[in-house]
């Protein structure tokens, strides 16, 4: 961890670093980037996103363009989703796996034109995804280009997002549906304006090229959002928001050792499209998942007490370990600690008493349905 004034020379910086420093952010090393962990405090930032709005710098995420006559074919071959079926202007949550079905990354793909896609991997996996796409594109009439260094990404999330953004854009926001992205302007700057999100709230993502234009857009959004209670929000609040929304985090709920079916996300695997990398292994994983004859299952946990339950703590049933927590934190919205954990797919979670081993002390928990939080629509 590093303060705003003590950045490591080896860390990459977003175009908004100076803006974060001016706002008093605590900056940390995240996936090789110098990123804001918090500003005023994670609980206040989390609550603002749930009740009003928060503004996030997500410029550490990767941006990879796949273009050309066979761009759709590349992505159908390289990923588990049926990306050639995505309409222009729409987006799809999907995954890229290895031949054994293990998840290399979960990501979002936007179709900008018939022969033009934007792939957005997680920061820690951007190089892995880029290399895999370049290798899997061989033999196709398509180009894979890394645009990460030239692109900034800002996310505006929360119930007030539409009211804040509307005066600044030429877009009719009612026409931008969930999981869509179109070319528009915000604060006079051309952007790809998307509506996906990772907080469980409504909101928008602004992909900005060149990245140097991002500070002006950031400042305009903060100014427009001031009457609506908008606050800048860091990685810590983003993590508790996505946890409440039951959304997986790569490196925790998703890894190379897990398939999409283990994570309860088998729906993103589209066998009907034909052959693709990892298909045979994923067919076997689908069969195991269907009859619960093997594999794992992701469950939600809600603590009965106040003591925090965290990643890597053992999950017990009647005193015997049956799993390990993948994510855990106090929930600002629920007011109690929550967590996710993997258990064997055939484990009967309706039987027995569950608890988490917190450094030798057992903390009782209840198994609950995911997500922990779902906004009213």
Automatic annotation (TrEMBL):
UniProt-listed Enzyme Commission number(s): 2.1.2.10
Boundaries of every Aminomethyltransferase C-terminal domain copy: 296-374
Coiled coil: none
GO molecular function: aminomethyltransferase activity
Reactions performed catalytically: N(6)-[(R)-S(8)-aminomethyldihydrolipoyl]-L-lysyl-[protein] + (6S)-5,6,7,8-tetrahydrofolate = N(6)-[(R)-dihydrolipoyl]-L-lysyl-[protein] + (6R)-5,10-methylene-5,6,7,8-tetrahydrofolate + NH4(+)
Keywords carried by this UniProt record: Aminotransferase, Transferase
Domain GCVT N-terminal, residue spans: 18-273
NCBIfam families for the chain: gcvT (TIGR00528), PRK00389.1 (NF001567)
Stated role: The glycine cleavage system catalyzes the degradation of glycine.
Annotated protein name in UniProt: Aminomethyltransferase
GN (gene name): gcvT
